[in-house]
Structure formats: structure tokens, C-alpha cells
Amino acid sequence: MRRIADIDIDVPILALPDNLVSLADGRRGFCGVIADVQASATVGGLPASELERRLLEMGFVEGARVEILHEGFIGRDPICIRLDDMRVALRRRDASGVLVRADIAR
Amino acid sequence: MSALDLRPEPAVAKAAVRVALVGNPNSGKTAMFNALTGSRQKVANYAGVTVERKEGRLTAPSGRAISILDLPGTYSLRARSPDELVTRDAVLGRLAGETPPDVVVCVADATNLRLVLRLALELKAVGRPCVLALNMIDIAERQGLEIDAERLSRELAMPVVATVATRRRNIDVLVDQMERQAALSAAAGADAWSEPSAGQIRALHREAERILKTCVLPPKRPDTWTGRLDNVLLHPVGGILILLAVLFLMFQAVFTGAQPVMDLITAGFDSVSAAIGHAMPDGLLKSLICDGVIAGVGSVLVFLPQIMILFLFIIILEDVGYMARAAFLLDKIMGGAGLHGRAFIPLLSSFACAIPGIMATRVIDNKRDRLTTILVAPLMTCSARIPIYTLIISAFIPRRQVLGGLSLQGLVFFGLYAVGLVSALAVAWLVRKVFWRGLAEPFLMELPAYKAPDPLNVARNVLQRGQIFLQRAGTIILSMMILIWFLSTVPGAPAGAPGPAIDYSFAGMIGHAMQPVLAPVGFSWQMSVALIPGMAAREVAVGALGTVYAVSAGDGATGALGGVLAHQWSLASALAFLAWYVFAPQCASTLGVVKRETNSWLWPIVMFVYMTALAYAAAFATFHVARALGGG
Fold first, then answer.
1. Chain A partners of B330 at a C-beta cutoff of 8 Å?
2. To which H or E segment does residue A86 belong?
């Protein structure tokens, strides 16, 4: 597996299945396939279901390929994602509900 | 395309076909709107909201009139911002004062179909006749992207037209399809829309994905430039440096590039005013025409160069696709103050003038974020403060070098700028913490592929911005100017009066009445009186001080105004006056534009109250601290 971030950001701890990684914890170069989109925590006052729907509408759906292309200057936040054939920017906090089956490094 | 007839429409018996343009952001929807309607556009606001309503007309080859409504870009009918709410309600025919559209045209970026196909399915479900415009098909062709338009049309059950809006390719075919679809009536039970659940969005997405797989072959020569450019422009260090360079260039262009034209406008209006002044007998009418109307029109037009240059930059950055990158780079910094990443453009422009800055807050979609930015924009040090700062600093701050070669005057000047900037960020932070607690919008934004801007579209959009400013802000600024002229001129001084004429006017009365309130911050009655005409624009206060002192000081003090002030004011009063001007809402035009942009008197009043309170507190503290330190 690629490097997984050990950075300290404000992300609720989720009990993750073995091989799933939250997109919020990935470093630049991290890639994989979205396995689950769940917004279990209320982020920034927005109801969880609302954030989930916004992520879905932006194309963060199960089965979509993601790769972290760029990271912000301060605190490696926000992140720029290649999402299938689009590019999307989002904050790590908002990405915490996107669970990714990471590619195994060759 | 000659098939499009843009002559004034003949009197047709049939009612105009009403078409609504819907699409994702960055799909070339505005270019499509321009290609369809040319210069026959009208920009207004929707009733009761601040969302811009753009409507245009054209005449089909058949002679039928078509009216096109350009709706704000959206990813879904599930509205999340006031703009998207308008789009949804217009499509559903629920918008107050609007006739439901006969046909909905979904404008798609042919190179980026995934999300728009889901939107098209959503639109289809509403039940109105739809057409899909596969825009930017030339770029898709260049990339070797194969789209089976016939199959797509069958899958979506709506006509599909491949277009290039900027080159007017197939626009006539699209118009023809609009007419055909308008003949169909909306399906029974149309508009029965309900907000989709997460599960329904997933299902629609899967359907869109299936259609995409069957109708579109991936590009043979995918765009690699966007990735390569992003490696440089989004680089944590290099990207920031390039952004700073772009911002510096924009700031320079707005700040100094507009100056010659602004000087020309000022000089032009001065000479017109002087010419009329010679031709007319002295009196109230001459004063109204010269000092009220002509000066008022001049003070509206003088903003135009800055606004046009600023919007030229904004529109090009937006069209190229860089705006989203800049917001990405600045999100963390601006977010710390509770502002959106895009707020940097309005705030930076406010260093030149808050008026274009406030107009530029349109780049921020979220209503709360936009309001916060509008509220703090006038705290940035605008160029109209410079004459006042210069006057007071040169009169009171000694020309001395401190800290090993730094000019004390320059340092004070810089300090005033810094105080403005820091207080703007602090107020934004406070507004977010106190008023809109915990309502942080997620930052979720598509970074579009880079594209070369279309010069014609850029020119058209910049001109449109100028026109909107003149129509909306201009009228309100002009009326404020005439009001301030009236207050400073009427009633006139009695014959042989010893004091300056302004002393006898309403402005003089208001100034005198305010004096007891302003005495604790160290303001003399002359300073209080100068604040009233100074509402026209901050720099006018310099002239007003000149009027008040040049006459009241008699013949002995005809020297430079600075010299007079140095005699008359204590250092503490002068510093308090500077502190006042850092914060005070001394600009009626700004308040007028805020009223226009927010469509309510509430926000200009809030702005006036909080800025006056800050100004009073700052001037009070400055005056008393300075006096305690011996500056009395």
C-alpha cells in the first residue's frame, strides 16, 4: 500500500474495514477505487446526508477511480483529486466519508 | 450562420417560444447564450433575490420569436445556493413572476459528460421537452473522443445537437430543435419533482454511467496539458508564487492602469463644468448643474475604468479555468478568516476601490460567504483614502528616519494599510463565529480543463459588466451625490456672512449637531462639518477641509492646507482623524452599491453601523492614548 498520512487533521475516527482507507488520509499519489461513500459525521454544521449527496453529485460514487494529484501548501489541505476523468478540489475534512480501496503498490 | 435572422422580429401571431438554458458550471453555457442571442440581451435581477436574470431574444428562420433564459450553472436540481434555487424553480415553473419554459436546453461540455448526463436525466424526469447541446464538440473531436449522438439521443429520449458555441457551429440546428420541441406539450404530471435521496442519486448516476459507456468511447488523445499545467500552477511553492504574480499584475492594472483614463474623465467633466459655469449666471441652478449633476455623473463614470479592467481579469481567469485553481491555493488562508477561497478577488480589488470589489463578490456562490465578503470589503484601504492619509501624515508625522533608514511617514502609511487588512480579516472571522456559527459550507469544486478564452465572449461580458454598473450602481450613486450636494449647499450663506458658506448649510448644521458626539474623539467642529461632504467620497473630505479652513481662517492662512491643519489640530486629533478614516463608512457610493448587490437596505445599514462603531472606538482610543503620551 502507498503511504498513508499520519497527519493530524480534524477527522472523526471511523471504524474502517481492513483494506479501506479514508480519502482524507491519503497523501499525494494515493490512488484507488471508491468502495463506499458515507457521511457518518456532521461536518461543519451540514447534515451528514446533505454532504453525502453533494459528494455523490460531484461524482464521488462507489466504483469511481480516485487519485490525489496535489495537496495544499498549509497542512496539505485542500486536496486536488483526479476523479475518473475529472479534477475536483475539496477539503480533507469533507473527504473523510469517502472510503477507498487503495491500489496495492507494485 | 446566415440561417439565423437577427433583425427585429416581425409581429407574429404565435407567442414566443420560451427556452431555458441549464448546464454544469464551465459547460460554455454563457458562450451558448451569447451565440444564440448576440447583443439582444437584458440583464436584471429575479424578483426578490440578488440572482442575476439574463434573458435574450432571437428570431428563428421561420419567423417565430424565441426568448432564451440563461439560468445559473448547477450540477443538480437539488438547489444548494440562491443561484441554483433559481435554476430549479425556473425549470419547474415555480418561480414567482416567471412563465415556465416551453423547452429546456441542457448545455453539456462534450469532453466532460459524466455529471451532465445525470443532470439531463433529472431534467428529463421533470417532464418538459428537453434538448441536449453537446457543446465544445471541436475540442472533443481534437481529442479523438467518439460520441454516438444518435444512440445518446435514443438513450436519453431527447434530441442531441453537437455544437461549438464560440464559432456558432450548428446553432441553427439547435434553434430548429427548440422550435420542434416547443410544439410538444409537457408530459402529464410535469413538475412533480421531489428532492432525490442519496440512493436515488446513486441510481441516476449508475444509469448515466451506463449511457456513457454505451455511447462514448474514451478519447484517443486525451488532454495532457491540463495535468502538465496543474503540476506547475498547483505546486505548493511555485503555484503560490505564480498566483502572487498574477494578483500583483491585476492589482497594478486596476490601481495604476486605470489612472490615466480616470484622470481624463475627471478633467473632461471639470472642463464641461467650467464651460457651463462661464455661460451661466451664478446661483443655485448653476451650482446644481455644475457641482451636483455634472460632478455626480463624473463621479459615477470615474469608477468605470477600474471596473472594466477588474472584470477583464476576472472573466479571463474564469474562462481559462484558473479561478478555481486560485481558490484552491488560497482556500486554507482565506478559510482561516472564515472566508471562501474566492474572496481574494473582491478583497484585493477593494484596495483600489470597494465598489468594483463589492461587484466582484459575484464570483462567490454561497450567499453567506458573499455577504461576509461584502461587509468587510470597505475595510481594505481604498485609493480614495490615500489623499487623506497623505495630507495628515505629511502635516503631522515628522520626516524622520527610524529603525535604521526606514521613513517614519512611510511606516505610518504602511501601518494604516495593515490595520485595514487585519481588521477586515478579523471582522470576517467574527461574523463567521458570531452570526453564522458552524455553518461552514463544504469546499467542493470542479477544476475545469484549461481552455483558451474566446476574445469575443470576453469583450461582450466585460462590456456587459460596465453596462450593469452604470445602470444599477450609477443611478444610486448619482442620486446620493446630488443629495450630498444639496446638504452642503442649501440653505446658502446670508450676504456678508463671516464664516464659510458650508457652515450655514444643512451639512454645517449636521456637523455642528454632531460635534458634541465627536468631541470625545478629539474632532473640532470644522472636522465634523467636513465629514458630511466627505460622504460623497473619502477624498472629498480634503477639499471640504480646504473650504472650511480657507475661509474661516481668514486671509492670514492661505498657505497649504497641511500647514493650516498643523497649526489648528493637535497631534492627537490628527491621529484620531486618521484612525476614523481607516474604519468609517465615509462613502455613500459604497453603501449604495451594497444596497444594490444585496437587494436590501438591511446590509448597508449593518455596514454603516458596525463601521461607524469601529471608527468611533478606534478614534476614541487613538485620541486618548495619544493625549496620554503627550500628543494633546
1. none
2. strand A86-90
CATH number of the domain enclosing B26: 3.40.50.300
C-alpha cell at B423: 481588521
**pTM of the full predicted structure?**
0.83
Residue A9 in contact with partner chain B when CB distance is under 8 A: no
| Domain count within chain B | 1
The reply to whether CATH 2.30.30.60 applies to domain A20-102 is: no
**Closest residue by Cα to residue B129 from B190, B86, B199:** B190
Residue B107 neighbours by CB under 8 Å, 6+ apart: B21, B22, B23, B27, B28, B29, B32, B133, B135
β-pairing, A86-90 vs A79-83, is: antiparallel
Q: Does A53 touch chain B (CB under 8 A)?
A: yes
In a domain, B251, yes or no: no
Chain A interface test: which of B234, B328, B444 (most A C-beta within 10 Å): B444
Distance between CA atoms of A89 and A96, rounded to whole angstroms? 14
Residue A5 touches chain B, beta carbons under 8 Å? no
Q: What is the pLDDT of residue B463?
A: 93
| pLDDT confidence of residue B213 | 94
Give the domain extent around B181. Answer: 17-217
- Residue B141 inside a domain? The answer is yes
Name the stretches of chain B with pLDDT < 70. 1-14, 48, 50, 186-191, 437-440, 550-560, 632
In a domain, B225, yes or no: no
Query: CB-CB: which of A54, A55, A78 is closest to B328?
Result: A78
Between helix B149-156 and helix B198-215 the angle, nearest 10°, is: 150
Comparing CA positions, the residue from A56, A64, A102 lying closest to residue B212 is A64
Q: From B331, which residue of chain A is nearest by alpha-carbon distance?
A: A78
| pLDDT tens per residue across span B2-42 | 445 555 544 445 688 999 999 998 899 999 999 999 888 88
Which helix H or strand E contains B135, and what residues bound it?
strand B130-135
The domain spans of chain A are: 20-102
CB–CB contact B115 A57 (8 Å):
yes
